[in-house]
Structures are given as C-alpha cells and as structure tokens.
Design a protein that fits this description.
By secondary structure, the chain is of the alpha/beta class. It contains 22 helices and 16 strands. Strands 1-8-7-3-4-5-6-2 form an eight-stranded mixed beta sheet. The protein starts with a strand and ends with a helix.
C-alpha cells in the first residue's frame, strides 16, 4: 500500500480508478531540418496555419465554458497567436529548421523568458509550453495532448495540468484531481474548487501510480492512498452522503449567535451570476470584468461593456454586486493596454496602474458600469485592483464620482494597502481583500510553484495579520468601512471562521463553496470565531495555524471538510 501526502486544495473523500494524464508530445529531434523539397515560406505558412487551428480550437472550447475556465482558455488561445512566439519560430524556419523543431525551440525560449520574470508571467510560461505541444501535434496530424477520454468515471493523476486542460475538466467523468506539481493557488487548484472536485496538489510521486490502480483521495487533508482500506472506503461512502446535505445553502450567512456574515459569489460573467444566484449567493463579492476584454485587439465599446455588466447585475436585483475594474497586465496582457516587454510584470503596470500609461480606458469602463447600474436594480459597488496608496484610492474615488458611481472601493492585494488601511479607506467606501495576491506578495512566493506551496497559503500568520491590520484600519478615525474577502481563502470553511473572527464583514467565494462555509459558520458563535482567530495569529507557522483551528472545529471532520 502506497501513501502520498500533498496539499489539499478542494475537500472531498472519494475512491476510484486512476487514469494518468498522457505523456506530453515528444520533442522533435534536435537539428531537424526542412525537407529539401519544402520551401521555407511554405513551411512558415503551414506553421501559422497550425497555430491558427490551435487558437480556434481553444477559442471554441472557451465559448462553451464559463467563469475561471473561460478566462483561462481565452488567455491560452491568445498565446497561440503570440507574435513573439511565431516570429521567433519563423526566423528559425527561414534558417532551415523544420517547422516542428522551430516552434519547439521558440516555445522553450519564450517560456524561459517568462519563467525568469517570475510572478504571473511565470504562469504564462506553462501556457507557452502547452501551446507549442498543441502546435506540434497539429503539424504532425496527431491528437493534441489533453485529458484522457473514458466512458467510466476516473480519478485524474498527472504531474501537472495545463490551464487549457483544467479549464475543461468534466466533473461527471473526472471524480477527483491529483497532481505531483502545482501549488494551492495554481490554475489546477482554482478550477478544481470552482467545479467542486476533490483535489490534491504537490503530492510528489503520484505520477508514478499505475493506470487502473484504485486509490482513495482526501481533498481536505491532501492525502492519497493506493489500495484503499475498508475504513477509507467507508469514509468515501460517508462523504457521498454528506455531500447531499451540503448541496443547498439557505441564503443566510450567519454565526450560531446570529452575527451576520453575508456569503457572496465570485463570478466572471452572466452565466456564472445566474448559477450563483440559484445556489443561494447573497450577492456578488467579486465580478471579474476581464471577460469583456480578453481575446480582443481593441478596447470594447462603452455600449458593449454596459450590456455585459447589466446581464450580471440583473441576476441580483436589490443585492450587492461588487465589480472589479479591469485587472489587465501580468498574466492577462492586452495588446491595446499593456507592455509585454516589462522586465517583471507582476510588479509592473497592472490593474489600476494601467491608467498611468494608457489613460481613458478606465474612465470609459466606469462610464459603462454607471450606465448599466442606472438600468438595473442591483446595488453596484466598484473596486480598483492593485491599489497601493491613499492617493491612488482618492483618485479612483474621484473618477467614480465623476462617472456617477456611488460606492467606490479598493482591492487590498498589495501589503502597503493593508499596512496603511486607515488612510486608504478614508478615501473610499469599502475594501475587499484579494488573499491570493496578498499572500503571494507578502510571502514573495510565486503561487504557481509547487515547492513554495507551504509558503503560499493564506494560513500564514503574516497574511492573517495583514487581514487584521486592514480591519483595524477600517475602524480607525470613525471610518468603519466594510472589509470583505474575495480571495480563495474565503472558500475554506475553517479559514472562513477565522476571517469572521478577525472582523471581516463579507466572504465571497466560488458558488460551490457556499453551502460548506455556511454550514460550518452556523456551528460557532462570534466569540468562538474571535478566539480561533487569536489562536491562528499566535501560531508559529501556517501548518500549525491550520491544524490548531481545525482541531477546534470537529464539524469539519464530520463533514469531510
């Protein structure tokens, strides 16, 4: 019997048969040359056609996806048309290299460059390698790499998954997801949570499990066992029964003693918003507006944006919808807005900062938001990403006021915003903590890297302290501004209790997590949540913070969370 320990990123206990992710496309031989009877210009044309075919296939998949999956697929499709990648490959072909070898070498160079930049651009490095493999497969006339097809459900095991694959996981076929690489905030982890799939990442050695082996996966504990015991089978059966009790949320986020903690949803478009409303979300805590801008060479018009925003607002009449203005840059480059040559885009012109270099785009977006809000019954709040100073917050509030937006706010993702929350929040109406980026920047740990998974968790006491400082800042000098959390931390039921104890006023998450978080919150009083928050803050490490809190919440073990 083999056991593997990784990082649990999406709860659930399940047994099933393993299917390993197919091995990647083989590398074209080094030094492979164009055939004597093939003209370089014909080979370049064939290469561009293959890249276009890959782009079109990924875009078609994006058109049928939604939310996180849609955004990932659209970003990966863009990479298939990346001019740097194709120009580099074209030069090699013109020098006599075969098309397959040229795109392979060009992809390696571009990927290495992005990886060295770190942060979000390192995440794009994975996209480049995925795209080059797909282009080589297209050139060879063989199936593109991807999730194995099967008529029976299975547990998918891999070294890691490309964003385009995680974006199209079918939970009716894939029972659980286990990878030997990746981190708790990787694409794999985020998509697994949004689909409600039990998932474990950074479990070294699992890619050696034989196809067809039966395994037990505990997505909360991060544990994988080959040849499950009877006890583990019983736990999986109990989880299946428990899942039914967690299938519904009554639309009332509250602690046991009646302290209200509205539970909101993170959405990426109208389809997500409608689904979240059906699952009982009390509003939207994070509306990602990037879907309007991705896969475009030009800025969408005010009319186009207004129509798209109104479709989301209309799903929540009379309820709060917190919209994040365009978070372009880093892993979401846009031809008309961002500079792909930045040496370190994760720390560069990103989010609100794009208004420094390309003024006008933000103001037109605010105009579209205001128009959509005026035609809807939703209570629309608007927040800017990557705010670092009180001056930036004040300027954003002025832009909102000029557009007719009543409730401006800021995303707290940069540690400086948390450390100076009192002055930042003096300028705006609310704050929302983006714990994914806040953790990455506070710990100086790329969220995609498996070896840094222990650092890149919001259970880090330093990150919890930044949350506490933000809440304390909101109460200084009579501010008393609402402070929510819209990062992945809110979807962890145990951490949701701690965040409530720290004074966070709302929690926003993938809609599938609402029921679990709502169920656990109802088992503690506000005073107990505050005690657990103090306990977590006193821990010397993230592991101990998590373990100490979970030990005080037996309901988590009972529910398999």
């Amino acid at each position: 019997m083999q056991n593997f320990q990784g990082v649990g990123v999406s709860p659930g206990r399940i047994t099933g048969s393993v299917r390993q992710m197919p091995k990647p496309v083989s590398e074209p031989p080094s030094g492979e040359r164009l055939a004597a009877d093939v003209a370089p210009e014909d080979a370049v044309a064939r290469l561009k056609a293959a890249a276009q075919a890959v782009h079109d296939e990924l875009k078609a998949r994006a058109d049928t996806a939604s939310g996180d999956g849609k955004a990932v697929l659209e970003a990966t499709a863009l990479m298939a048309k990346d001019t740097m990648l194709l120009k580099s490959a074209g030069k090699l072909v013109n020098a006599g290299t075969s098309a397959e070898r040229a795109i392979w070498e060009a992809g390696a160079s571009v990927s290495e460059m992005l990886h060295n930049l770190g942060g979000y651009m390192a995440e794009r490095a994975t996209d480049v390698l995925d795209v080059r493999a797909r282009i080589v497969a297209e050139l060879r006339g063989v199936p593109a790499p991807g999730i194995p097809s099967s008529e029976t459900p299975f547990i998918l095991v891999a070294e890691d998954l490309a964003p385009a694959d995680t974006a199209t996981l079918n939970p009716a076929v894939v029972l659980a997801l286990v990878t030997s690489g990746g981190g708790p905030q990787s694409h794999t982890a985020i998509i697994a949570r949004s689909l409600g799939l039990p998932a474990v990442v950074a479990a070294h050695g699992v890619d050696g499990i034989a196809d067809g082996s039966e395994v037990y996966v505990d997505g909360a504990a991060g544990f994988v066992a080959v040849e499950p015991t009877e006890e583990q089978r019983a736990l999986a059966t109990a989880w299946a029964e428990t899942s039914a009790t967690l299938a519904a949320f009554d639309g009332n986020g509250t602690t046991a003693d009646g302290h209200l903690v509205p539970l909101l949803a993170n959405v990426g478009g109208a389809k997500d918003a409608v689904a979240a409303a059906k699952l009982g979300a009390q509003g939207v805590g994070l509306f990602r507006t990037e879907f309007c801008f991705l896969e475009r060479d030009t800025e969408p018009s005010v009319d186009e944006q207004a129509a798209a925003y109104k479709a989301v607002f209309d799903a929540f009449p009379g309820k709060k919808v917190a919209l994040r203005t365009l978070d372009a840059g880093a892993d979401k480059p846009l031809p008309f807005l961002t500079d792909a040559t930045e040496p370190n885009p994760a720390l560069g012109v990103r989010g609100y900062r794009t208004d420094f270099t390309t003024p006008g785009v933000l103001e037109r977006q605010l105009e579209a938001i205001a128009r959509a809000a005026s035609e809807s019954e939703a209570d629309v709040w608007v927040m800017a990403p990557m705010i670092s100073t009180a001056a930036e917050a004040g300027r954003f509030a002025s832009l909102c006021a000029a557009a007719g937006i009543r409730t401006p706010g800021v995303m707290v993702e940069v540690p400086s915003a948390a450390l100076t929350a009192a002055t930042v929040l003096r300028e705006v109406g609310f704050a929302s903590l983006g714990t994914n980026d806040l953790t990455q920047y506070a710990m100086a740990a790329d969220r995609q890297l498996g070896p840094l998974a222990d650092l890149n968790t919001p259970w880090q006491p330093a990150v919890l302290r930044l949350v506490q400082l933000t809440v304390e800042g909101s109460a200084q000098e009579g501010n008393n501004k609402p402070v929510g959390v819209c990062g992945e931390a809110a979807a962890d039921p145990a951490l949701a209790v701690v965040l409530t104890g720290l004074g966070v006023t709302t929690l926003s998450m993938t809609a599938r997590s609402l029921a679990a978080v709502g169920t656990v919150l109802k088992t503690v009083t506000l005073e107990q949540a505050q005690e657990l928050a103090r306990l977590a803050l006193s821990a010397p490490s993230a592991t101990e913070a998590r373990d100490w809190v979970r030990a005080k919440l037996p309901v988590l073990e009972e529910l398999g969370l």
